[in-house]
Specification:
The chain is an alpha/beta fold and 216 residues long. Helices cover 40% and strands 14% of the residues. It comes from Bifidobacterium thermacidophilum.
């Protein structure tokens, strides 16, 4: 739950303190196009503010950056703190997530991993990502064929397919490959470890959080 800020000096609240404000979330990710567009759509669906910060860095550096932004936000008394902070990463470019996981855990931040790429979650909106799709090109091709992405290099999302109905379907479909066995593989993402396990995505956690906070 977001911490409430103090009132301005002189004992008088400004006009913005009298208005009901949208809940705020922060996403720090490496994706410059697809993920940014996706979270913008979630912002509209759940009537919240999702601030998206992008850097082409390793999971560890993204986690450090998220910590910096969190501290800056906590010092800003003009609004409420972020409800949640998510560091959203893939596995295809960076295989070492152990340091990022520790940084996030120590600082109250959630690390959201998709293996091998974010398109696993996008494909889940249309159908469950097949267990055999462990390579990024396979998943990206399937997502494009399903019509969930398109445009230049298939980086642009078909936002008409990102709605509450498809989000519920995506959560259901993700359970078909987010098995207990695969979670062990997800938690073994460390240097020099062989990355051979079926598709996985932590994105259902994000949607469930947005849904629950919307209802509260």
């Amino acid at each position: 739950m977001a911490k409430k800020r103090g009132v301005p000096a002189h004992g008088r609240k400004s006009a913005r303190f009298h208005r009901a404000r949208k809940k705020r979330y922060l996403v720090v990710a490496g994706g410059a196009v697809t993920e940014r567009q996706y979270f913008k759509q979630l912002e509209s669906i759940y009537d919240v503010v999702i601030e998206y910060q992008q850097k082409n860095e390793s999971p560890e550096h993204l986690a450090d950056f998220a910590c910096t932004l969190k501290k800056e936000d906590e010092r800003d008394i003009s609004t409420d703190c972020y409800e949640n902070i998510w560091v959203v990463v893939d596995v295809d470019d960076f295989h070492d997530h152990s340091k990022a996981a520790k940084i996030c855990k120590d600082n109250g931040i959630e690390l959201i991993i998709s293996n091998p790429c974010f398109e696993v979650w996008l494909l889940d909106h249309m159908k469950a990502c097949p267990p055999s799709y462990t390579l990024t090109p396979d998943v990206e091709s399937a997502a494009a064929k399903a019509g969930i992405v398109g445009g230049n290099r298939n980086k642009y999302i078909n936002t008409e397919l990102i709605d509450r109905e498809h989000l519920d379907a995506a959560i259901h479909n993700a359970t078909r490959h987010n098995t207990a066995e695969n979670s062990q593989g997800r938690n073994r993402l460390a240097p020099n470890h062989e990355q051979e396990y079926a598709p996985w995505t932590d994105m259902p956690k994000v949607i469930e959080t947005l849904k629950s906070n919307k209802q509260s």
